[in-house]
Design brief:
This protein is of the alpha/beta class. It has one domain (about 5-305): TIM Barrel. Helix content is about 35%, strand content about 15%. It is built from ten helices and ten strands. Strands 3-4-5-6-7-8-9-10 form an eight-stranded parallel barrel, surrounded by six helices. α4 links the parallel β6 (about 110-115) and β7. The longest helix has 20 residues, at about 230-250. The two termini are about 35 Å apart.
């Protein structure tokens, strides 16, 4: 497993991060807590030391499952969680953080991230200076070790950076979803901000497991993923046919190839979710992969056969 430095901190994080949105169960189907806990343990046993969650994932349920699963190895792992935009007022940041600490069964959070900019999803437009002031105070108190942001534009990251050190950005980024490459990822590279890519397998699309007639179970939010719209899905299927030989010559599955593509970029990690232990193990196996320049160039061209037809909306879903 490749390890990288988180921003300008002394925190080392695994190149494959286990994502736990599905552990919250809300907006997913057929999720079992005990199976999720085993997946978390399997991820750790196979070199994954970093786990990402958020308060909004099942109103704390994901954090609770994660806290229980990792309690005995807390000092050996890095936990990242997020505060939702409805809690970005100064006092509310503290309340949200303390709830997360309780749910995670931990005295500290390694990376605390603003999940979406203030004003998202009908939330109050709290000045980022106010939110950062609270986060800086939590950092002084030792409740959090580092501050990150998620779903921020280049301009929003720059503004937040005026009021405190931003160590990471979490954008949706995959071979089939590359809006962040235009401005935010170059900005992060220039300013030593680590990129934690979420949905690096395009929510399963890049694994090749979905057929043209696939129907998501009731309540599964992926039905609203814009990449699954017929016109985009069809192009993706054509691209997957071209990606398969690259995966085979690197002894990787299509899903592992998608993860390897992310972590072959500078200062970037891939957040990969898993429903069960086997998925967690397969994701972890990608953590030691580095693709050649030739493979990266070929994959870039294949990926653009999908992304060149997308509009400029950086949000992955039509909620």
């Amino acid at each position: 497993m490749k390890m990288i430095q988180l921003g300008k901190t002394d925190i080392q994080i695994s190149s494959i991060i286990m994502g736990t949105w599905q552990a919250g169960r809300a907006m997913w189907a057929d999720i079992d807590d005990s199976e999720t806990g085993r997946a978390m343990q399997a991820a750790f046993d196979n070199g994954v030391t970093t786990f990402d969650t958020a308060t909004v994932y099942g109103d704390g349920h994901s954090e609770q499952v994660l806290g229980k699963a990792l309690q005995s190895i807390r000092s050996e792992v890095v936990i990242a969680t997020k505060v939702f935009p409805h809690s970005l007022a100064y006092d509310n940041v503290f309340k949200a953080c303390h709830k997360s600490l309780k749910d995670l069964k931990s005295d500290y959070i390694d990376l605390y991230q603003i999940h979406w900019p203030a004003g998202s999803f009908g939330s109050k437009k709290v000045p980022v200076e106010e939110s950062m002031s609270a986060l800086n105070k939590l950092k002084e108190e030792g409740k959090i070790r580092a501050v990150g942001v998620s779903n921020f534009s280049e301009e929003q990251i720059a503004e937040a950076s005026q009021y405190g050190q931003i160590e990471s950005l979490q954008p949706p980024w995959s071979l089939f979803w590359r809006h962040a490459e235009k401005e935010t990822i170059p900005y992060c590279r220039k300013n030593n901000i680590t990129v934690l890519a979420y949905s690096p397998m395009a929510q399963g699309l890049l694994t090749g497991k979905f057929s043209a007639d696939h129907q998501f179970a009731k309540g599964d939010h992926r039905a609203k993923n814009r990449l699954f719209l017929p016109e985009n899905f069809s192009r993706a299927q054509d691209a997957l046919i071209k990606l398969k030989p690259i995966a085979e010559r690197n002894d990787l599955t299509l899903g592992q190839l998608a993860l390897a593509w992310i972590i072959s970029h500078e200062n970037a990690c891939a957040i990969a979710g898993a429903r069960n232990a086997e998925q967690a193990i397969q994701n972890a196996k990608a953590g030691g992969s580095t693709l050649s320049a030739e493979d990266m160039e070929e994959m870039d061209s294949i990926g653009r056969s999908v992304t060149d037809h997308l509009d400029d909306n950086p949000v992955l879903w039509d909620f």
